[in-house]
Amino acid sequence: MSLVLVKSVSPTKKTFTYLSRSAPYGSNRAQVCLDAALATAVFEQIVNYVFLDDGVYQLLKEQNADKIFTKTIGNAMETLELYGIQNIFIEENSLRERNLSIDDLAIKVKILSNKKLAELIDSSDSVINL
Amino acid sequence: MSLVLVKSVSPTKKTFTYLSRSAPYGSNRAQVCLDAALATAVFEQIVNYVFLDDGVYQLLKEQNADKIFTKTIGNAMETLELYGIQNIFIEENSLRERNLSIDDLAIKVKILSNKKLAELIDSSDSVINL
Amino acid sequence: MIFSVVIYSAPYTSESAANALRFSQAVVDNGHQIYRLFFFSDGVHNANKLAITPQDEQNLQVTWDSFIRSNKLDSVVCVSSALKRGIIGADEARNHDLDSQSLQASSNISGLGQLVDAHMKSDRVISFG
Amino acid sequence: MIFSVVIYSAPYTSESAANALRFSQAVVDNGHQIYRLFFFSDGVHNANKLAITPQDEQNLQVTWDSFIRSNKLDSVVCVSSALKRGIIGADEARNHDLDSQSLQASSNISGLGQLVDAHMKSDRVISFG
Amino acid sequence: MSTLHTISKPPSSGLLNSCLTGVSENDALLFIEDGVYHGSKFSPDLETPHYLTLFSLEEDVMARGLNQSTLSNINIINYNDFVDLCVRYDKVVNWF
Amino acid sequence: MSTLHTISKPPSSGLLNSCLTGVSENDALLFIEDGVYHGSKFSPDLETPHYLTLFSLEEDVMARGLNQSTLSNINIINYNDFVDLCVRYDKVVNWF
Fold first, then answer.
1. Measured between alpha carbons, how far is F11 from F18 in angstroms, rounded to an integer?
2. What architecture does CATH give domain B15-129?
3. N- or C-end of chain F: fewer Cβ atoms within 10 A?
4. What pLDDT digit, counting tens, does each position of F37-88 carry?
5. Of F1, F93, F96, the CB nearest to A123
6. Number of other residues whose CB lies within 10 A of the CB of residue A61
7. Please, which pLDDT band fits residue C42 given cuts at 50, 70 and 90?
């Protein structure tokens, strides 16, 4: 897979990279990270969204948080694309360590190697890390 | 070293075991655990106090939290004995994994093996775990 | 059987505050008694009476308040945790000349002795944090 | 250089709220500018104006308030984080018929756009949580 | 005596290992909140003593997209069962 | 570009390993809060790439009873230095 690491294209646009590292529901960090990214997209900035560590659990299929009275994060993931965020990545090692395959995931994401993650962070203007 | 695992001796006294598992300062858990144990001692209950995992860092010598505007936990440890809490333990593996020796510690504590920790928990009426 | 429940976490930030409430409801539903709720550390934020939530979201503080009232429970917020976090009842507001108060009337401010007492008087104490 | 500082943690429970304040003070002391403080998630509890602390302990909310006022800083608490946590300003209290309010007047309630704007307008954004 | 241990952090936290230093033969573990990833096919194999009975809280399991087929050797229980377990065991120790 | 990474959780958290997946050659690490146990003789040996400069925040080091003699290969800095580092590196990424 070829990765396009998007950089700032105009002086008014900055590149924001979100690292979502937390499992959903146990803490609000997954939701907070998502909300901030969506707000960033509304401002028409360039957004990369990366699932890392336990954050990859956010992508599991068939989540249903009705009984714990919370928004279902798995569904909310679709809003990333609705807001025009297309660079959605999942970190390779995090995926493998959890025996996850692309088929287990609720949305389509690009697989990001270790090395490319470092490049993505390096080339970003702002990194928000939860 | 011989360990006396204290159990309830009268119907009005219960055995409380505190497991203090957190490093000091970064979170308030070490202080919260200590405060609860001291309150328990005031009520003349039987108290065991165990340092486990990162909780063993609370015992390092020469702590000084003045510059972060917090009470120095290392000093506060002495209050355990002032309140009559004598069963103060440090879990053996937690100590060893952190290259700590008894000489590095601010107060005298008894070393508790893995197996004895399980016995202590098993024989307690209440276990408070932070 | 007599239970007490201790809550260490702020609402919304950790699932455990909501989990403590669901558990407490199940205790009552199953015919057991709750001797005391004890809100400790960031848990005191659950007793803030000023919370406003969107209509489609659960207001956890209001749900706690309703649960406490409808079951006539003893609900205590730890004094040393509450005051420095701005959880202030009518008495504290008066004593400190504050124009506002933030504590739900269904909870009382008291000391750590109430936590120890809860352990002494309950068959089971369950903590959420 | 222009900094913004984002605070995710409640006061007292985590060291990071106090750390954010010490860092912000150092930014100003070293001749840099703070474009905005943004209190997010449990960080909004730092802007509670009702906190009462023992005389020998730091009142972190009051210290934030003094710091913000003396440096005339733009301090924003995230609206969706604040309201459900009971951090309520005069407007919200009036609109919702509440008898009390809890927000320090030195901070303003606003949306996540202010966080994005802070990232766009600052040379450096530092987060504490 | 017997103890019910609850664990509410994910496998990556290492909390299960701490808990296992404190368990005895008559004890049980109940996974709640982010603890329910334990024992799922999406986490490292559980290495718990054979004598421990393992439970996970249904509401938290379902929220996270897990189910009985991805959780082998785990008994999925609801809040009423959670209360019953508290009664059945002599005390509860909460690991969080 | 160059990045200053701050790490505020202790070695047991595994946070350093997460951070290391995201570092580049011109970066530096600053340990703050409970992160300052990293690199001390009371924690596992650091396995960081040789090109990374390592810093720890003095106030947090002192609070915890650590000092230069227990922290080899770590530069101990104060809050003013922390601000300077933020200026010297192109951006800051906070790991917490």
1. 11
2. 3-Layer(aba) Sandwich (3.40)
3. N
4. 999 999 999 999 999 999 999 999 999 999 999 998 999 999 999 999 999 9
5. F1
6. 11
7. very high
| Residue F95 CB neighbours (<10 A) | 24
Least confident of A11-20, A83-92, D27-36: A11-20
Residue E88: which domain range? 3-95
Q: What is the pLDDT of residue B77?
A: 85
The domain tally of chain E equals: 1
Smallest CA-to-CA distance from B6 within B52, B50, B55 is with B50
- Residue among C15, C39, C52 with most chain D CBs within 10 A, to mutate: C52
Q: What would the CATH number be for the domain defined by D2-128?
A: 3.40.1260.10
Do B68 and F60 lie within an 8 Å CB cutoff? yes
Residues 6+ apart with CB under 8 A from D105: D49, D89, D90
Q: For residue A78, give every residue at least 6 positions away whose Cβ sits within 8 Å of its Cβ, in sequence order, or none.
A: A106, A107
Cβ distance D42 to C41 less than 8 Å, yes or no, reads no
Q: From residue A118, how far is each of A114, A124, A127, D3, F22 by CA, in Å?
A: 7, 10, 11, 24, 4
Per-residue tokens: E90: 């002599």
Structure tokens at D67: 């710091």
- Classify the C-alpha dihedral E81-E86-C125-E59 as positive or negative: negative
> Which chains lie within 8 Å of chain D at 3 or more CB pairs, if any?
A, B, C, F
Per the document, the length of chain B is 130
ipTM of this predicted complex?
0.95
Residue D31: partners with Cβ closer than 8 Å, 6 or more residues away: none
Judged by CB atoms closer than 8 Å, whether chains meet at F12 and E12 is answered as no
Which tokens sit at A14? 């900055």
* Min distance F32 CA to chain D CA atoms (Å): 9
> How many pairs of residues across A and E have Cβ atoms under 8 Å apart?
58
In angstroms, what CA-CA distances link D75 with C87, D46, D113, F93, F96? 22, 11, 14, 21, 22
d(C-alpha E91, C-alpha C61), whole Å: 28
Write the pLDDT tens digit of every residue in C74-127.
999 999 999 999 999 999 999 999 999 999 999 999 999 999 999 999 999 999
Q: Where are the domains positioned within chain D?
A: 2-128
Which CATH number characterizes residue E60's domain? 3.40.1260.10
CA pair distance D76, D46, nearest whole angstrom: 11
Confidence label for A8 from pLDDT (cuts 50, 70 and 90): very low
